[in-house]
Specification:
alpha/beta; Rossmann fold; single chain; 9 helices; 289 residues; 33% helix; 10 strands; 2 domains
Length: 289
């Protein structure tokens, strides 16, 4: 059984996010875990268990992209209101506010060194935060399975469905209906509104942080972030046809201060590789101190 404390994060824009704090209350190192699309604070439990020790705490929390369709609270003066949330309707840029709230919380509890750890779409969010907010307060970024949703969409496209879906989503946005759900026959693997669909599946979206699938596209977000980064790639990632070595080569070329490690034989969840991953992270943290 893994013990933890329940925490509530208030973001700078007064959204209230629920989280869990694992490990020491005032740690030397605090790892802020940023979950992926439709996941939650309860995701990657085995990884959390492998990372915590007497010096290291891990905080998981529900960012606005947790689950599919849900609600969260926001303070309005003395009142509190419920607002729409979940991956279906998430506005990607709002992740910067969520992450800043988590960083502020970790600072207040006295963590000496703070690291962001994104999984899947959480990887894009970690780098987007760093490019928008600056890196003050975070000593490094850990990426678990950083992939491009646009590159995956291109790999999975059949018969021009992607182009038809993008055109339909753009029509909805231009008609002032960005929160309208995409039709099932044009949607992807989860219910998605028009603006979220375009964010995930177009080449010039702010969410396309890792454009390894676009040969001539410069990764401007990566170029703007200079804190140490550890990119962990799943050797048998089921979400992409590209070999891990090919993606690793791209990250080695473009990360400013990057260390890239392939964890062999694991899938996107890194299940079964937790001990190796934890050892790589501890080794990397020691090098950043």
């Amino acid at each position: 059984m893994l013990s933890c404390y329940v925490v509530e994060i208030t973001t700078p824009k007064k959204y209230l996010l629920n989280g869990l704090w694992f490990g020491p209350k005032k740690p030397k190192n605090a790892i802020i875990f940023i979950h992926g699309l439709t996941a939650s604070a309860f995701s990657m439990k085995r990884m959390v268990a492998a990372l915590i020790n007497k010096d290291t705490a891990v905080m998981t929390f529900n960012n606005r992209g947790f689950e599919k369709i849900t609600e969260i609270k926001r303070k309005r003066g003395r009142k509190t209101e419920w607002v729409l949330a979940g991956a279906t309707h998430e506005v990607f840029a709002e992740c910067a506010d969520d992450i800043q709230g988590a960083v502020n919380f970790a600072r207040r509890v006295g963590a000496k060194s703070i690291y962001l750890a994104g999984h899947s779409t959480g990887c894009q969010k970690a780098f987007y935060w760093a490019s928008r907010k600056g890196t003050r307060g975070a000593k490094g970024i850990i990426l678990f399975g950083p992939l491009s949703d646009y590159a995956i969409a291109i790999e999975q496209d059949r018969g021009g469905k992607l182009a038809r879906s993008v055109a339909y989503a753009k029509k909805l946005v231009h008609a002032g209906k960005p929160r309208t759900l995409m039709p099932e026959h044009l949607g992807m693997w989860f219910p998605c509104d028009a603006q979220r669909f375009l964010s995930l599946h177009t080449p010039d979206s702010a969410e396309e942080v890792f454009p390894y699938g676009q040969r001539n596209k410069k990764p401007r977000v990566l170029a703007s972030v200079s804190i140490p980064t550890l990119a962990l790639l799943a050797g048998n990632d089921e979400h992409t046809k590209k070999p891990a070595k090919e993606i690793a080569t791209w990250f080695k070329r473009h990360l400013q201060k990057g260390t890239v490690v392939i964890i062999p034989r694991v899938k996107h969840s890194f299940h079964g590789g937790e001990k190796q991953v934890a050892a790589e992270i501890r080794r990397w943290i020691n090098l950043t101190e």
